[in-house]
Amino acid sequence: MKTRHPGPAKVDRSFRPDRALEWAMGAFVLFGMLALFIFVRPQPPAELTSANAAQAMLDFRENLPTASTASRIGQVTAGAAAADVLEVLGASAEDAEAAVAALRQTGLVDRKRMRPGTALTAYFDESAMQDDTSRLIAVSIKPDARNTLLATRQADDRFFVSVLTARMMTSHRRVAGEIETTLAAALTEGGGKPGHATSLAALFPDDAALAAGGLRGDRFDAVFEIAEDERGNFIENGDLVFAAFNGTNSHGSWYRYTPGDSGRTEFFDANGVAAQPFLTRFPIGRVPINSGFGQRYHPLTGYLHLHTGVDYRAPAGTPIQAAGDGVIAFIGFNDGYGKHVRISHKRGFETLYAHMSKSAGLAAGDAVKAGDIIGYVGDTGSATGAHLHYEIRRNGRYVNPMTLELPSGRNLASEPEEYAAFLKQKAMIDALRGATVPDSLMAATLLPVVHTSSP
């Protein structure tokens, strides 16, 4: 008997409605899932869209490598310029020069060399080191008490400078008490500066001891301006506005005031009278001027040089008067000045009178008064004709006799409007001092120790 093996099964290809429905449902589901995958993208939550989405991305930065930024501080010295300092700190020579050049464009730093002592803060991207130098990204300096400069590298590698200027407000500070060592030390301890002591002493020119620092136990009272920012932080000291002194050799009080008509600031006493002039600009009267103070070509040598005085044109033999009270420091002859006289005056001033034909019989050490005749106009020495060469020196330095600010002796009491304005300012200063009468400094209530106060 032969065994029959079953052959391949036949597929029933006849249409069956129940099977067709199953196929249609499966195809629809598959197509729908594919459509969702292709056309639908994940979206952030509604609260993280737009700007908030960008902010949210910052949370991922901690997972990314960051640049290594470092700040280093250096200081300009007499032997190291600003660019040199930046190179020492790690900048390339090109970056250092570019940053310093940008800082100079502000006009707030010297065009040639920054002042020794100027501090620079340099910021580097240390991830971009090359040849032992770091990529300089910014430099900050403070050229003065008011301003801060920041030079930052831009996308084109140029440095752009921003200037931050503090908003300034003027206030006042009072320092009063007794001198224990020197006036400068007492004022500095109270928040002033040594220059305030110099200004105060200059108001009492006949007190040599005060000019040298004062005597122990001498009493003083000073008010000066101070500059503060909008938060009340101290920035710098300003000018002296009031000074009083009650010492062994002198006493008095002075108020700074600027008359509206002249615009010239002076110190006036409590009665509105300015200090009397102690020098004159015109020792032979108001005569024509041949040559003023400043650079000029010498009429004999032809070289450009500083003309250290003023040349007054006058006939030979015209009397020359002492410009102020003083002592003859020198009388003699040399090739330049010819026959000349030099007089020492108070407050560190000297006057010189050159090219005289003869002197008036004086000798070194003789005391003279303002207006005394000390000699006569001539043409001795390096002179092209009869004239007076007149110099004023202050603490050994030449000053322009025509522009030097000298006391005027002006009396505001004779000018009702100016006097009223002066009294108003005086009252403000007295209020700062807590004073009730002009002579309160002289009262026994003056504190024996330094103290400060500000409104």
What does this protein structure show overall?
By secondary structure, the protein is an alpha+beta fold. It folds into three domains: 69-165, Nuclear Transport Factor 2, Chain: A, CATH 3.10.450.350; 169-276 and 442-453, Nuclear Transport Factor 2, Chain: A (Roll), CATH 3.10.450.350; 289-399, Distorted Sandwich (Glucose Permease (Domain IIA)), CATH 2.70.70. It has eight helices and 23 strands. The chain has helices at residues 17-39, 50-57, 82-89, 93-104, 183-189, 194-202, 208-211, 416-433, and strands spanning 69-75, 119-130, 133-141, 147-153, 159-165, 169-178, 219-228, 234-246, 251-257, 266-268, 289-291, 294-297, 304-307, 310-313, 319-321, 326-334, 338-344, 349-359, 367-368, 373-377, 387-394, 397-399, 451-453. Strands 11, 14, 15, 16, 17, 18, 19, 20, 21 and 22 form a ten-stranded antiparallel beta sheet that branches. β12 and β13 (304-307) form a beta hairpin. α3 (82-89) packs across α4. It is globular, with a radius of gyration of 42 Å. The model is unreliable at 1-66 and 436-455 (pLDDT under 50).
